[in-house]
Amino acid sequence: MPIKLCTFLCYNGDCLIAIWMHARFNYKCETLDPDNPDGPRICVEIPVHLYERLYKYAPVRYENLRAVKHVLKNPERIFAGLRKLHEGGWCYTGVPEMWYIKPQVVVPFPDHLVFAVYVNPRKVVFEFGAERVDSDDPFSPIDWDKRYGAPIWKSTS
Amino acid sequence: MEKHFLSEFVQGEQEFTARPWYNPDGDCIIYQTADEAVVRDRVDAILTMYRSAIDNRPIGFQIKDVRAIIEKFGLDALIVESESKGDSIRSVCLTALLLAAYDEGPKSLERRQAYASAICPPGYDFTMPAQELCEA
User: Fold this and answer.
1) Is there a contact between B37 and A64 if contact means CB atoms under 8 Å apart?
2) Phi, psi of A52 (to 5 degrees)
3) Where are the domains positioned within chain A?
4) Over its length of 157 residues, how does chain A's per-residue pLDDT go in tens digits?
5) How far is CA A34 from CA A65, A79, B50, in A?
6) CB under 8 Å to B94, separation ≥6 — which residues?
7) Is B96 an interface residue toward A (CB < 8 Å)?
8) Which is nearest to A128 in space by CA: A84, A103, A91, A78?
9) Interface test with A, best of B5, B48, B61 (most A CBs within 10 A)
10) Chain A residues lying within 8 Å of B29, measured CB to CB
11) Which of A2, A85, A141 is facing B65, going by the closest CB pair?
12) For strand B79-84 and strand A113-119, is the pairing parallel, antiparallel, or unpaired?
């Protein structure tokens, strides 16, 4: 876990000055390695510019970063091949127990949706949200077979 | 709900703001018009509509592969110029970007309706009575 404050020490020729600053950092979430799902877990980052922006300007989305963390920790499916024009990247899907639907309102996550977290090739989260589930699989987004390159991992539970 | 895992690392006031922004990590533009949970509704490889998890109305969109669109059409084709306090401001026109993206795919009714929803967000009345056209 990164620290909240960082200290800089500098000497101006006369005295030692300590400066305490609020640290800004990407938050690291543990998850399965999409290149080796059966191997050791890796860290995927939620970038500081994303969570700070959501905190200030989109509070409900900021609250639903909890679901992002849950899905990365407990994925049900991982898909590869997200974009036609960009190589790489993955979609992790899962089902959080609860989510925010508007400020201060928390409800159970509905059965007809699955929560998707999009991760770029540098292992950075860039998008997330609920999606309608596919009729054949309650843990896959609708039309997954037309949208993604291939499912690369499925939970066995 | 338990304390947010990021609560120690954010500070300041919170105020929902409907304003498009470019996310370089995803090469995408995101625009959301209501502070509600989002259900993503993929239209095509470029456009994903955001629908309210409460009542399914459109509340924004994501435009993907923005750099590729700009490379194909040129930034000048997507820029509008305005003035503020005597300074010239160059802005990317999201309508032009959406129209360029629409040109990239099949001309289906479903796509046209989705792109129209993105171009005219709720609350912005860009409609007129159909009867006026029928009578003309």
Assistant:
1) yes
2) -70, -40
3) 26-154
4) 444 555 667 776 777 776 666 668 899 999 999 999 999 999 999 999 999 999 999 999 999 999 999 999 999 999 998 766 667 899 999 999 999 999 999 999 999 999 999 999 999 999 999 999 999 999 999 999 888 887 899 998 6
5) 20, 9, 27
6) B20, B29, B31, B63, B119
7) no
8) A91
9) B5
10) none
11) A85
12) unpaired
| Interface size between A and B, measured as CB pairs under 8 A | 122
Residue A149, classed as helix, strand or coil, is coil
Largest CA distance in chain B: 62
Chain B residues within 8 A of A143 when measuring between CB atoms: 42
* Cross-strand pairs, B21: B30
Beta carbons of A57 and B45 less than 8 Å apart: no
Tell me if chain A has a CB within 8 Å of the CB of B68. Answer: yes
pTM here is 0.86
Side chain identity at residue B105, one-letter code: G
Q: Are residues B14 and A55 in contact, defined by beta-carbon separation less than 8 angstroms?
A: yes
Closest residue of B to A2, CA-based? B9
